[in-house]
Fold this protein.
Amino acid sequence: MSTVAESSIFASPEATPDTGVWPTREDVFAEDVGALEHDGETGWQNEDSDTEFDEAGDTEADYAYGTECDREDAGQEDAVFEVDSEAATFEAADDTEADYGNAGYEGGVYEEVDYENADFEDADFENIHYEEADHEEADYGEADYEDADYEDADYEDAQPVAVTPGRLLVHRHPQLRAHAGTPPDLLIEWNGMVEPSVVDVVVHLHGYSGHGAAMQIVKHKKPISGLDFTDPAKPGVAGRTVPTLLILPRGHHQPKGNPARYTFPALTKPGALQALIDDALARFGAATGTSVRRNRLILTAHSGGGAALMSVLGHTDPDEVHTFDALYNDPKALIDWARKRMAAGTGALRVLYRPGEGTARASERVGAAVRAAGSPNFRVERTRVPHNDIPRRFGWQLLADASANLSGGVLSREAADESTEELWTPQEGDGEYWGETGWESEDFAGESIAQECGCRCKDSESLEEEAPPARARRMLGKCKPVQDDLRPEAPWSEMQQRFRKRCSLTSHRLDAKAAIDCACAFGDPRDVALFSMARVIAAGPLAARLFAHFLGASGAEVTIDVADMIKRSAGVREKIRKSIARGGDIGFTRLEQSEYRDSDLQFAYGAIDCVQWRVLPSAPKDWRKKPATRIEISMLDYYEFHPARPGVSQCAHAACVELVARGQAKNFWTSGSTVVTLADLGVRPAPPARPPRERRPLHQSTY
């Protein structure tokens, strides 16, 4: 996210008086300043119904390693929703007081400009004149907002609708009824969210079970599935906060050849998985009184569930795939999907496997295919964690951040190679996890989670030699967002001396800059952030959620509701339309803060460095003339602060950087995608061509 300021930032404080307004934010603190740009930035159950609804949330907290847990007696997990799961930034706008006389930012390099003696014409800063009429009438006409008054209608008067964490159990599901086994057929869970319009969806395909037909997904599969919003071993650890629906379908018990085998015939046919997701969204909406669409799709698989995953990938394009020791089959479908996603600069694939075992060969094939990309989003990693513990250990971490450096048992390649001879190597190459059987004694089936698989793995293996951390550098196609992760340039006490000097020069009437400088001069960085929150809240609820998420210090990625942004902002629609007008079937652009024309969006996201549009396949050659043409819009940006760049909120930016250094706040990625039509972007069909006018010769009268 990049920052921008008024023309006055290029002059010294002595030469140019402070305007007393908030400048646009570098990434989070924003202001609408016209064309200025930035350079970075349930318990109840109906006896006659198949469905249970558990509003209190997850029962998973009562499932400990090596314990039996009965569904009826299981205690409910304390579900805590932290409101600081999405929010961020501030800077008040006052167009009438700002000096726009010589603003020009497209050619400027801020770090090298002498702000006190700058000659704007020599420095290639374009002279742009901003008259009040341009701000009030030219681009902000009533035509863009005639259908909705965002500030009054939705954001200031209406109270946000909160959805508390919950769970649904469907004992007999129409689509899964044909699957042999023990009900329930489907488990749905969600985290806390506020006024959701879209939710991410995670579908987990479980593996074989030593319990055979008696396996129950709540008792035997959910605790080891990795479908967790926090660390199941330490529930207080921050995990995934993006509005998300977790879906765990029960597979079909098919004991021929292996009494532990489970497959998913009802979900591997084209359209079947999407039908299940649509049904789950409808049930979620009915239970919570909301209406939501699916945003990102994440598919996860453990052990024998990998076979069903390969079938699903033949006709489904998820946004992320996580496999947990699951690649016993030919991974061609997974490799093809990964290559397509890497070429587009989107998606994420994380593969975990145990070296020297049945999944090693296929996993290493995938690793060879993705290694050249060098992306933290596409990784194949080894682990000594017992087979059935892998999803539980790593699943919540990947749901929180698909590019995360995993902790708790990922091996470096050297360590894995040294340990290969010590590990059991399967002798049967039938492409399925033959070790996941029910040969263990039923009397001891509940004593160990790792025992459920029946594999002869070493539960006591150490977890030393974790892979060294690597900086997660993200890209969207060819576009690389700015990611500076700045450190404080001086101790906070020294910074306060500077702000105290400015504050002492303030007259009795505090303007916006003096107010924030005085807050920094005498307050703790956290106090400054809370002081700034008042301005952020005034901008709108989305901005407040992102800033609160920053202060929550989880660092979890936040989903950009691209569909909502396009619907709300005429400026965003216009910017993407203009980019699409220039040749090709794929392109990139950048959203500046001034282009939203919506303070909530502007304060929430600031400038978005990478915006990619892509025409979906099967479009005709003249697709630009077809309003029904489908376009995928993807966005990627990094939420951070840049205090070195002058502006009214410089002190607030410095306070935020100090909070990050103290571990009391954390920068994070924002990303999202949606599919729209050209009509959604405001493209209208071309008017029918006029018939040619008939030309009749006129003969001069001879009379």
User: Anything to note?
Assistant: The longest strand covers residues 293-302.
